[in-house]
User: Which sequence fits this backbone?
């Protein structure tokens, strides 16, 4: 291994050759690398990083037998472009060798009538397995599971189990424990591969069995499943129904995907976008999606403008107010989003409970007020040097204290309210908190100015 | 299993009992559950979700032998509070049974002199292993790896390998493949546990060996390692030095932790915060950290105010300008952050290359201009109904188009520039883009107003 190029370096080089080949149009090399050298995940990355035209070229060069795995690695949006043009029979063939959860993911993107046709084109056994997973959404354990488990009865010996393994077409790729079930398919326990490797072949499975393995109810929320994998350092876990019967298995590779998606989601959410929104989508599609978020913000901006409008007469007398007003609003926005981020993180980690919410709330308010006082002194002094108007300095200083208090309250309460109404706080929280601190900031600043400077 | 409460349900119940016990002060039950029932990760969660006083109570009730594992699960900030009060000898004992990467993580939080003392208190062999990992930062593969690998020579038989396994104190907890090395410790390949389980005992290891396993250079960036695990669905991977010699092993549980941290980071970054910033830290600590980000924003806000100040005379004549100015700035801020999010995600995924950056840039600009035109018409019409001043409507409409163009350019170029200067775009990008669109928005809107309305 040390004298030759590592596999990963070779893949990186091949990706470079494909990119150059697509640019120059010399495609024979590209076709070879796509079908005989590059792994599916890298082909998917290559497709996602290509312009819409190049994507079609890559897809056409790709042999049918590779298309299924590439499809399962692609972002939904990009996969959708290819799915539209595939016949149900072709799709059934292309996806035949995928894991059941991956097939279900792909089918869920199709219109219901088309899904039925694809299922109809499958072998009976495959159809049954896929239909079982299709019954569950991606948000719960059932949607993450594979139905191809390996299980044995408790009274067989290790030797018998190993003989059984050799008869299977293949052991699952991620195989860290053997599941043990009774004749009703109820999960009794699990045996780690480590025990299987080191046990005497005549040992009964029962003797090696962990009787309290982590098991996952089919209805458990996906993010809870992910947290469980993280907490217990799991590689795989059995999925059971309400009666404890074995339905399938979740493997850590799907959890890694889930967390990666989660990380991406948080990048996109701060701009009100969906992670599946595709970097390389056509302009019109992009523009339409973003317009939704801009519209929501426009309503918020007009609300802020309306508040300023209430104080037109005051601003006419003191134009300095128009100059300083963004400072109060923007400082409040930042402080509010700081409290919001702390709360969202705590919600995601399940750290908030009745016992500590009061303490948490008071801490945010105290931190907000402390920073309010600190920055009000600073801004007050700068404003005094700038406009040499003592009363104006007092007004902006007081407005800052009030708005940082509003920010702390809004930052803590908004995510709690949104969660109660089942709206994702990470998505809607930012624009709501910013609106509250904008409106609050303008109202406090211009209102105080009207009282103190005008009257 | 089906007739009794599952292990997870029992843990959840026990956590509830501990929380109630801490509230009421009846601690004997709490002590029992902490030391004989709850897994370390759940104790760590419990500590993180407790107030600073309760944390000390839990820590004191926890037996020494459990403290090491709990420490390795805690957020840095919270762990730091306990580490401060521990003697080097106690720390060496408490961490003795942890994985090398976990010990290294804990030691890296200590002052250098203290680290040396803790290392000195360790057994010689442990010290050597930990020192090897301590040489690498958390940002590279070396910092993630465990040094306790299991490896064999290529010419031994499966039977011999299995006998060797039985002599080890224990096989590693996550063990999906056996590494094969030559006498110089160079990595030759790997054998999957699946092959070991199903092979005839007399088979030579060499015959089962994958000669091109994924191997990770010790200097590879952690996020690249994580992407590799995700792409190849890995459970573990060997770490090698520049000569291909085996140094250690990275397991998927550390990758899951990495991705979870990444997801948390993105939640916090949008408010300029660090994920290790602790939800339950004392007020003063919290306030000081947030003040840094508020200060940066204050500079940006004063820059925006200064731009408005340039146009005081114009605003004096048309107070409606002060009312409408936040609309132009905030729409630009949203649009800019949308482009920014797309770019950051593409950077994280390594989707940007020389071949597509031009296409991407032009797409962002076109999408920005399209939305600019759309919203300028909308805002122009609303402004006309509000102020019944045609020229003013034209001014805000034009300013919006220009600012959404600025937003697209800033959203694409800012992350590229930041990356070149090795500043995290996810952290600093938001405040920079918002500053550019604020300043640009105010300047365009008030500047156009001065030209069109005053002159």
Assistant:
């Amino acid at each position: 291994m040390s004298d030759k190029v590592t596999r990963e370096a070779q893949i990186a080089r091949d990706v470079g050759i494909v990119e150059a080949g697509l640019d120059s149009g010399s495609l024979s090399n590209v076709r070879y690398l796509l079908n005989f050298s590059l792994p599916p995940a890298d082909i998917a990355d290559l497709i996602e990083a290509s312009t819409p035209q190049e994507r079609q070229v890559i897809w056409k060069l790709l042999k049918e037998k590779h298309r299924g795995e590439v499809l399962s690695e692609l972002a939904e949006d990009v996969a959708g472009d290819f799915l539209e043009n595939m016949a149900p029979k072709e799709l059934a063939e292309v996806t035949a060798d995928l894991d059941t959860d991956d097939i279900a993911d792909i089918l869920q993107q199709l219109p219901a009538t088309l899904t039925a046709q694809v299922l109809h084109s499958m072998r009976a056994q495959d159809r049954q397995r896929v239909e079982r997973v299709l019954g569950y959404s991606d948000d719960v354990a059932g949607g993450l599971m594979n139905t191809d488990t390996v299980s044995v009865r408790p009274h067989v010996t290790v030797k018998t189990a190993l003989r059984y393994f050799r008869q299977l077409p293949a052991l699952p790729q991620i195989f860290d424990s053997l599941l043990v079930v009774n004749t009703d398919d109820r999960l009794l326990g699990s045996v780690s591969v480590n025990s299987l490797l080191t046990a005497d072949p005549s040992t009964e499975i029962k003797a090696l069995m962990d009787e309290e393995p982590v098991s996952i109810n089919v209805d458990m929320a996906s993010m809870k499943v992910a947290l469980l994998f993280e907490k217990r350092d799991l590689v795989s876990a059995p999925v059971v129904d309400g009666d404890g019967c074995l339905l399938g298995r979740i493997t850590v590779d799907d959890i890694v995907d889930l967390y990666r998606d989660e990380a991406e989601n948080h990048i996109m959410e701060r701009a009100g976008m969906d992670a599946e929104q595709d970097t390389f989508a056509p302009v019109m599609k992009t523009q339409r999606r973003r317009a939704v978020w801009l519209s929501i913000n426009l309503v918020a901006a007009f609300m802020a403008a309306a508040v300023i409008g209430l104080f037109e007469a005051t601003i006419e007398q003191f134009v300095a107010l128009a100059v300083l007003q963004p400072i109060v609003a923007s400082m409040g926005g930042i402080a509010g989003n700081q409290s919001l981020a702390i709360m969202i993180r705590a919600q995601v980690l399940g750290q908030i409970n009745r016992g500590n919410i009061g303490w948490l709330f008071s801490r945010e308010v105290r931190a907000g007020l402390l920073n309010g006082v600190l920055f009000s002194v600073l801004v007050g002094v700068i404003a005094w040097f700038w406009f040499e108007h003592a009363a104006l300095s007092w007004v902006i200083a007081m407005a800052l204290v009030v708005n940082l208090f509003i920010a702390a309250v809004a930052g803590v309460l908004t995510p709690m309210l949104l969660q109660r109404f089942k709206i994702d706080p990470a998505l809607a929280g930012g624009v709501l908190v910013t609106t509250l601190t904008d409106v609050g900031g303008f109202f406090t600043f211009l209102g105080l100015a009207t009282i103190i400077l005008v009257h």
